[in-house]
Please model this.
Amino acid sequence: MLSFQWGNSAPPKTDTMKTDTMKAKVTAALAARNNVLPDSRDAAWILIHEVGLDSQFLGVDYGYDFGAYLPRLCSSGRSHKPTRKMLTVLLYRMAIAKQIHNPSIAVKDWMGTNPLARWKPAALFNSLSDRARARPLTPKARNYRSGIGIEIEGFSKMTKSEVTPFLPIYAAAVHDGSIRAPHGHNPIEINALLNRDEMEPKLFRLCAALSKVSFGVNKSCGLHVHLDARHLSFDSVCQRAKIVDKWLKALRELVPLSRQDNSYCAFGFSRTERYRAVNVTSHSKHRTLEIRLHSSTINYQKVLAWIRLVELLFAIGKAPKAGLGCMATLDCLPLADYERSYWRARHIQLNPTQYTGGAIETGNGGEE
Model:
């Protein structure tokens, strides 16, 4: 019996090939090709003709609907329904074998159908993972109790459409014109929405995926964190933003110099300006508070430590004492010992002149 591999899609039910004779024809036709699927439209039609299906589809317009994530031909003609389903499965399998990004469109093209023939939006997505990826990156759309949004700016020799298949379904690659990518590289911003209840493994998976596609960063790139503020009014978010901004001013030595004096993340609260280290312009659209201060990185430890720090600053609800230095301000925060150790090491790394001994390593993991 012919076997189809569907990946994340639900497998077709066996009754989609009701005729034993038709099964035998398809199996024999593929066996004659050593089970190598057609690699072109013409080759596909030759196979279809050998199986004897071409006469079923002449002069008929087709659209698509979806059932169990399986594209299914919908005909206005009088073709045999089980046969139509079988051909859809066959052509879909061909497209999958060719690693075509959107098998539904490929099948439609092979069928030579009218592009406007009862085309339904759901048919643009060929699998469960594609449908999940297409949902908006919002906690409501993803059914998250609480979400953490991150934007990682960087570049790659791959285009954003080539990077996308390597990303988890809760991440997307978009263009960002502010990134100064090296020659031969494409500027790309990675947008991701993490379920706060399972943030650590999801973030680890995202950083690992970006490492595999050789995603790079430089001084022009930033890391933006969006904190879920759906439970707060705009005025309440503004009050929290003022407090967080004061903390970050005191802790500014924990980020590279390229972020301390940067027009895309300037200090000082504003209700309307987007390019602030802490800004509220995303609240009206996304119901979030955005923090843009950190330099871009795909280092899991650095991203996680920054998210936890800004979450704490967001929750504190009161400003730091005035006049304290960076490390004294850090000591005022209720951090775990391992977090405090990380930030102290980070401060030494980024501010070596404040410490004795000239042999201190000043590298920062490729962020600058």
About this structure: The chain has two domains: 14-129, 135-354. DSSP finds 14 helices and eight strands in the chain. The chain has a mean pLDDT of 76. The CA atoms of residues 242 and 269 lie 6 Å apart.
